[in-house]
């Protein structure tokens, strides 16, 4: 039995410096004290906050909502636009470079 060695090319995925990340926070608490997400009587608070490229501000606004409303349960959603780069010297890298030159 022979052994085979597979060498996988080094692709990279990095944040896209030309696009903004988003940070959003949504309150999960209810206005009438029903604290179970599945409780049909729960009246959702509805508070939310979104910001571009500033997670600290999202955290600050979330804490302010805790102080104002006494609500402590949230959902945080963040997006991070990325760029995938094929290995240097690969056929795909050459094809993408030609495509990008043609569209600029
Ligand atoms: Zn709330």
Automatic annotation (TrEMBL):
InterPro entries associated with the record: DUF7848
Domain DUF7848: 1-86
Top-level taxon of origin: Bacteria
Pfam families registered for this protein in UniProt: DUF7848
Name of the molecule in the record: DUF7848 domain-containing protein
């Amino acid at each position: 039995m022979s052994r085979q060695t597979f060498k996988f090319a080094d692709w990279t995925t990095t944040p896209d410096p030309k696009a903004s990340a988003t940070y959003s926070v949504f309150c999960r608490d209810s206005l009438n004290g029903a604290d179970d997400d599945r409780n049909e009587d729960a009246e959702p608070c509805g508070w939310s906050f979104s910001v571009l490229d500033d997670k600290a501000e999202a955290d600050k606004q979330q804490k302010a909502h805790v102080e104002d409303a006494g609500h402590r349960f949230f959902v945080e959603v963040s997006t991070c636009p990325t760029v995938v780069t094929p290995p240097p010297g690969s056929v795909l890298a050459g094809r993408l470079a030609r495509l990008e030159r043609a569209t600029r």
